[in-house]
Amino acid sequence: MHTRSGAQPGRHPALALTVITSAQLMIVLDATIVNVALPQIQRALDFTPTGLSWVLNAYTITFGGLLLLGGRAGDILGRRKVFIAGIVIFALASLLGGLAQSAGWLLAARALQGVGGAIASPTALSLITTNFKEGEERNRAFGVFAAASGAGAAIGLLAGGMLTSWLSWRWTLFVNVPIGILLVLATPRYLRESEPHPGRFDLAGALTSTAGMVALVYGFIRAADEGWGDQLTLASFAAAVVLLAAFVLIERRSQQPITPLRMFANRDRSSSYVVMLLFAAAMFGMFFFLTLFVQNVLGYSPLEAGFAFLPVPFAIGITAQIASRMIPRTGPKLLMIIGGVLAAGGLVLLTQIKADSSYVTGLMVPMTLFGLGMGLIFVPVTIVALSGVENRDSGAASGLLNATQMVGGSLGLAVLVTVFGTASRNEGQEQAAKFLATATPEQAAAFQQTQQLPPQYASEVLAHSISSSFRLAALFAVIALVAIIIGIRSKSKTLAAEPAGQATPGAAK
Q: CA–CA separation, 132 vs 151, rounded Å?
């Protein structure tokens, strides 16, 4: 197959990998690129504080919930074709979001971005299997892809800070439009199409899984504001249980499910999904809370806040490349254990954060440790999750891996925000008592009117609440480490070279 210019897709591996990883980076960083722009977005579009959180969640939930359907679409229709469609939808939604004149308009655009990302991202990962030979070449490609996926959230914070400070919050969305156009033009030239596998779309499974996750995340966010006894909170959790149970039943009975349950028969693969979900939950929480800390406690500008996170993508990029080269010598498990220890250690250090913590010792060192650990985890967990998957299921398998990352981020952030809200209320009462004990009558009257503590007391509340959230994030990492030690049985140095479809589900390699 030749393009009009005579270039043959698949003959330019470096350019093919550039197209794939650029798309993945654009999609992943959009989960965080608006973080540092949220105050400007709130003022421009009159968001309520509760509604503002949905600027993030509208994207991550639709993205995570529909990833499985996107992966299956690539298997059925052809991965390159579906990849291009996803990029087009993503770029169009970004343009609409940048033009938003109301809160509802922006949320609709962010949800549509999630749809486009859910279509493009799993096909991007499975296109690696289409365009790169199994073995060392594919391992290197996975290493670059994993680095882009892992570093995307941190790069999004930096890019968001730069665009918000230099231009406008709208450019955190507009920037995707020219990138999307270039990707659409380059894809037919440098990427081979996969062989379609005729089948049906499992719309019922996609709808119940997405609706179930929306209800679950909303329940946690509602609990942070209204408490666990609130009727709507309880109703949301009940709806989540019913919808997710229906999703499992649908998948068990469907002849062509978006999530073939046979993939979970392999213990290594199932454990890799758990590991990705838990570490993504910790990572998204880290970025969210430290963004609050550096701007509200350390007083950083949006641009400075973005630069503050640079150690994370650098650390992930370094160790992801090391991991891709070491896997043939060590196998995946050892690297995942070392990475899990480093990542958990960084989160444990972040539990010590205080209002007077400095950037270097209080934030940079723990973030760097976390990034080094995540780089060692992302590559082997990707290879373990996709190794031995039949070619007809590779889109669904990669979609499920990406879904665990995005759903883990959304759900983990919602749970951590619940802890944050509870700790904030309790610490706020203590700090208010301390303030009122020494306040002048005028200061006390002003507090009673505004309910706003002076900055030094407010910083103590914020730091304590963030520290409490990191205790749970550290627990996520410890549980993930246990899952690696107990669940990942493969120590094989040739795992990544295993022909697709020839692994015995559940068998130790």
A: 22
The Cα-based distances of 485 to 173, 268, 320, 328 in angstroms read 41, 11, 20, 19
The pLDDT tens digits for 6-19 are: 444 445 667 777 77
- In this structure, the dihedral spanned by the alpha carbons of residues 122, 381, 153 and 467, taken in order and rounded to 10 degrees, is 140
Write b or e for each residue in 335-348: b if 16 or more Cβ atoms lie within 10 A of its Cβ, otherwise e.
bbbbbbbbbbbbbb
Say how many C-beta atoms besides its own lie within 10 A of residue 452's C-beta: 10
* Side chain identity, residue 57: N
Between the CA atoms of 90, 91, 94 and 95, what dihedral angle is there, to the nearest 10 degrees?
-150
Residue written as tokens 């010792």? 361
pLDDT at 87 over 80: yes
* Count of other CB atoms within 10 angstroms of residue 77: 19
Q: Contact at 8 Å (CB) between 59 and 32? A: no
* CA 27 distance to own-chain centroid: 10
With beta carbons less than 8 A apart as the criterion, state whether 285 and 416 touch: yes
- List, for residues 433-447, the tens digit of each pLDDT value: 776 777 677 666 666
Q: Are 60 and 402 in contact (CB under 8 A)?
A: no
- Residue of 206, 146, 70 lying closest to 382 (CA atoms): 146
SS3 201: coil
The predicted-structure confidence for 346-355, as pLDDT tens digits, reads as follows 999 999 888 8
